[in-house]
Amino acid sequence: MKVIPTGSTIGILGGGQLGRMLSMAAAQLGYRSHIVCPEANPPAGDVAADVTTCAYEDLDTIRRVWRDVAVITYEFENVPVSTAAALEDLAPLRPNARALEIAQDRVREKSFATELGGDAAPWADVASRADLATALHMIGTPAILKTRRMGYDGKGQARIAKSDEADEAWADVQAAPSILEGFVPFDREISVLIARGLDGATALYGPIENTHVGGILRSSCTPVPLSPVVEARAFDLARRLADALEYVGVLGVEMFVLGERVLLNEMAPRVHNSGHWTIEGAVTSQFENHIRAICGLPLGTSTTIGAVEMRNLIGDDAYGWHALLADPTAHVHLYGKAEVRAGRKMGHVTWVR
Ligand code: AMP
User: Fold this and answer.
1) What is the band of 192 on the pLDDT scale with cuts at 50, 70, 90?
2) How far is the CA of 26 from the centre of ligand 1 (A)?
């Protein structure tokens, strides 16, 4: 296994809080991070060795500033696949471009998972208003219309309680290519994070129970009282996806639990918000394991060291950070974002008990 020597520079596409936590994990192992993202003063910029502000499409600039990078990764799943793939001649891209390409498109993602024997909510491809009528006839209501691409934190989604709401939903997604998904009356929403090394070794985190408010992750807890069958199915799905993608790094897999069924919701080809607790609550964090994996190092154990709760600080929640510190067991993380906006992830808090 070819190891990226410590002291090398890791190129990271994306400069948000995930890039910030990845950069800190990289620094712990002696690596330098060089962030490329279009936003000025990104959260990762406070802790990375270098930051370049440019469009993801500006390949000339990226090639020039990344001449010395030893490996390239990404912390944002909507970076253009064409950019990620074009940069592969500079240094290895981990996770690979195929993982990015599949995860960016809900149709490809769902087809890929079902081909591997994974379960998912009933869904149909919707390319036009006429397709939506056919899909509603097939799937029924309630249902959720989701854009194929660029959806995150509940954006690009419209719920359809009755079929007469179809016009409004189609307008909500701005007539973009979409999928219609049957509404799942799930018992729980869970995720599994899988780290997969260059040698194919894996380390699994979870299952983690996730609570969303308005489509945004509010809190994550682990362990979750699940039946051994459900737990095995969740781990098995994550392993199958990671192996089939020849994945290197951390993959987040979000699922719905309905009775004994485990249905794929979506996968994120990157470190994941539902695993922030791994910084204090696991022997090796997801961030460190992502860096270990992409640098060809052996993975650290993912075992948890207690019962864990992680709560996101969203929008105005951030103003309460000092009050949270009155609890001496609270691990408070702030992302250094200058402006508080509704729905913006400003930080998170973890408790390990
Ligand atoms: P997504 O962006 O696809 O992860 O959706 C955001 C959130 O909407 C999920 O975390 C769920 O809480 C909810 N959701 C999405 N799809 C469905 C579905 N098919 N049935 C029920 N709830 C859903």
Assistant:
1) very high
2) 32
Q: What angle do CA 86, 73, 293 make, to 5 degrees?
A: 130
Q: What is the pLDDT of residues 261-294, one digit of tens each?
A: 999 999 999 999 999 999 999 999 999 999 999 9
Of all protein residues, whose CA lies closest to atom 9 belonging to ligand 1? 215
Question: pTM for the full model?
Answer: 0.96
Mean pLDDT, the chain, as a whole number?
Answer: 96
Nearest to 96 by CA among 287, 251, 255: 251
Type of residue numbered 140: G
* Residue type (1 letter), 283: V
pLDDT(340) > 90 = yes
Nearest CA to ligand 1 atom 13: 215
Query: What are the angstrom distances between the C-alpha of 161 and each of 131, 179, 258?
Result: 18, 16, 20
Q: What are phi and psi of 330, to 5 degrees?
A: -85, 130
154 lines ligand 1 (CB under 6 A): yes
Length of the chain equals 353
